[in-house]
Structure formats: C-alpha cells, structure tokens
Amino acid sequence: MTQSQTVSYVLYKTDVLRKLSGRKSRVCDEMRAMTSNQASTANPNDAGGPEQPGAGAPSPVSVPSPAPSPTFSPLYQQIKALITQSLETGEWKPGEIIPSEVELAGRYKVSQGTVRKAIDELALENLLVRRQGKGTFVATHNEERAQFRFLRLLADDGVEHPHVSCLLECRRLRAPAEIARQLDLKPADPVVQVRRLLEFDSEVTVLDEIWLPGAMFKGLTFERLSEYKGPLYAMFETEFGTRMIRASEKIRAVAAEPAVAELLHVPPGFPLLSVERVSYTYADRPVEVRRGWYVTTGYYYQNDLS
C-alpha cells in the first residue's frame, strides 16, 4: 500500500469510529431519558413534589379512608334500654312490681343472666328496687330511703334529721333566658317558679328557688302545694307523671345577700353554701332547675361517689 493509500485508510477509519461514537452517545442519552421518565412515572414525588399538570404522568389514585366500625352495644345494655323504655312509657308505674327475670328473659328472648345484669344496673341507678323474697319494683320517691337521695344536707352527728317545708311562693311566668336554656325551652316559654324554706329542728336552714316547665306542670298552684304533705319529688311523680332520675349540681361558697340573709335569719354577708342543680327525667330531659342556699352551721353536704 502506498503512503497516500495509507493516509486515506486512516482517515476513513477515523470517520467511521467518530460516527459510531456519536450514534452510541445518542443511544445512551435516549436510554437515560427513558429510565428517568419511567422513574418519574412510578413515583412522581421522588422529584421533590407532585407532578405538574401536562407532564404526561397519570394522576395519583386517591385511596378512600376506611369506614368507621359500628358502635358495639352489649346485649344486656340493649335489654336495659328496653326495660327503661317500658318505665318511661308507664307500662310499670312507680311502686309496682315488674315481671320476673324468667318472664323478661322469655319476652326478650335472651338468657336470664342477661336480664339479671340489666336489672342490676338499673337498681344501681335507683330506677328499680330489689326486695328480697318479693321481687323487683319500680323505684319511687315516696320511699323513705329516697327522700334524702337529692337532699344531701346532714347534721354533724351524721343523722338524717326530718325537715319541714314552708312554702313562700308559687307562680307562673315567662322563662328568663338562662332558665329557658337550662330547661331546653324557648325564650319566654311558660314556667312555674316555686320558692320555699326548709326547717331542720325548727331552724330555717335552706332557701330553695325552683323552676319547672309550665307545660309539664299545668295545674301546679300555691294551694295545691300547700295541701300536699309528702316530698316534693313524690308529688311530681304521682300527680304530674314526672320522675327525677338524676341531677347535676354545682356547689360553691357564697356570702349571703341581704334578701337571702333576711329569709334565712342570718346577717348579710354570712357564709352560705350555694347549690345549683339541674334535674333530669327519662331520656336525659331536663325538668327542674333548683337554686338552693344552705346554712351549714351544724350541718354538712354529703355526696357519695361511685
């Protein structure tokens, strides 16, 4: 091969290698781009944020949150609710005996043990009363032991002293805004206001201011209250069909205002115990607002917690 042919051959090979190298570079660039696109499509957040519209990648799929599981109610609680419903509708009235556990088990198609557990809870809540050898009865405010359930003032000697009620006032009026709110009434709905004094051992000890829904206590008058000699809650139960089931109280120490001090026979500014109570009947319906001022000289307020 001549020198001129040798040079031409070298130039030819160099040109071929350059073209091959360029093609290889383009192929590598394309492969890198494809790899990058696949990675971006598989996980768009790896690029530092959500994929922008128009980038060509599919939108992320929204996964719905799992639905909340239904609330589970034990069987005895369901039976308790059914028995309470019968009490509320008056199927078994205060003081009456209810069917036996065997009869109730047959009625609700459950075991006797399930009925017994439901009745045990209702007895703890003072809705039912078990009497040994006699059966289970609907609790009533006429029972002696129930009379002090909502009146928790005891003498220092721990004895429950009997008290005498002295009625001051009973009138119908439009509900003040705060009373309407507490009784779940509309503003200016009719209410009955009762004011009375309680005497313990012939000494004025408690001033009560009581508010009741007017529609529920139609016919409640000063004369009717004056003639009734039993507990006030027993009267509400027997004559108006309203039974107090539970109460929520706020207790604080206050200084006697002049008008209150005069009724309680103490000097103005005398330390008193203030008890504000909202009482409820079945279905947690508020049916009484009571504000009491207590003279605690020789007395204390007892509350049992369980």
Explain what the structure shows.
This protein has 2 domains: 75-138, Winged helix-like DNA-binding domain superfamily/Winged helix DNA-binding domain (Arc Repressor Mutant, subunit A), CATH 1.10.10; 144-301, Chorismate lyase, CATH 3.40.1410.10. The chain contains 8 helices and 10 strands. The chain has helices at 3-42, 75-89, 101-108, 112-124, 177-182, 222-227, 232-240, 258-264, and strands at residues 128-131, 135-138, 153-155, 163-174, 190-200, 203-213, 246-255, 271-281, 285-294, 299-301. The strands form 3 sheets. The protein has a 6-stranded antiparallel β-sheet with strand order 4-5-6-9-8-7. Strands 1-2 form a two-stranded antiparallel sheet. Strands 3-10 form a two-stranded antiparallel ribbon. It is of the alpha+beta class. Strand 1 (128-131) and strand 2 form a beta hairpin.
